[in-house]
Amino acid sequence: MSGKRLTRGERRERILAAAAEVFAERGYDGAGMREVATRAGISTPVLYDHFPAKAQLYSGLLQSEVDSLQAAWGERPAPRDAEELFTTTVDAIFGWIERNERGWRMIFAESPADPEVAEVHRRAQARATEKLAELFAAVPLATDLDRTRANELFAETYKSAVNAIAGWWWHHRDLPRARVVALTTDLLWHGLRRLTEEAP
User: Fold this and answer.
1) Does residue 179 belong to any structural domain of this protein?
2) Half-sphere exposure of 30 (CA within 13 A, CB side)
3) Nearest to residue 186, comparing CAs of 70, 83, 78?
4) Which of 51, 53, 143, 197 is deepest in the core (most CB within 10 A)?
């Protein structure tokens, strides 16, 4: 007797799981749709029925990883002050990175040139800026910039630095996460602390 026939949704989940393995092993450029189909136990035409192009398959996985990372920011306990807000956010981000190597590679260590994938990255970066700007809105700051623009400026600076450090860490994983968090906090908090100390 043959096994239970998969529903379309179940088959899609199987494809995504297989694709995650292949992309993690080979990266975007090295991954092939035929190998994904083989890992999923389906034919290549069935795979293309679900995902007409590799970019669509990768984009779906990338969006899932971005959602997971940004959800991790909300798992922090309520901070007592601006410094704790800053440091716990850094720790939450790098904690997620350490636990999710596949997402780490997709978000920080790869930048496929495909326009569809690039658009997912662009939307993710815009969402990250918005979310970080909301965090900075809770921090008292002394600046002559309009507060909304100041929040966006600090969010972009913070995000760019964290992105760069996360990408660098991919190639230097002998450095423990606690050390990376400490270095990131020292690097980014110093100037912001002066602004918060001078705020009325």
Assistant:
1) yes
2) 9
3) 83
4) 51
Residue 150 and residue 144 in contact, taking contact as beta carbons nearer than 8 Å: no
Specify whether 47 is located in the same domain as 71.
Answer: no
Query: Contact at 8 Å (CB) between 121 and 148?
Result: no
Provide the pLDDT for residue 194. 73
Type and span of the H or E element at 191: helix 177-198
For 114, phi then psi, to 5°, come to: -60, 130
Count of structural domains within the chain: 2
pLDDT single digits (tens) 7-39: 888 888 899 999 988 988 888 889 999 999 999
pLDDT per residue as tens digits for the range 50-72: 999 999 999 988 888 888 988 88
What's the domain range around 44?
8-52
Whole-structure pTM over 0.85, yes or no?
no
Residue whose structure tokens are 């899932």:
64
Q: What is the mean pLDDT of residues 165-180?
A: 94
Query: Are 63 and 17 part of one and the same domain?
Result: no
With CA atoms as reference, report the closest residue to 62 among 114, 98, 10, 11. 114
Strands (E), the chain: none
On whether the CB atoms of residues 23 and 35 are closer than 8 A, the answer is: no
51 vs 180: CA distance, rounded Å: 38
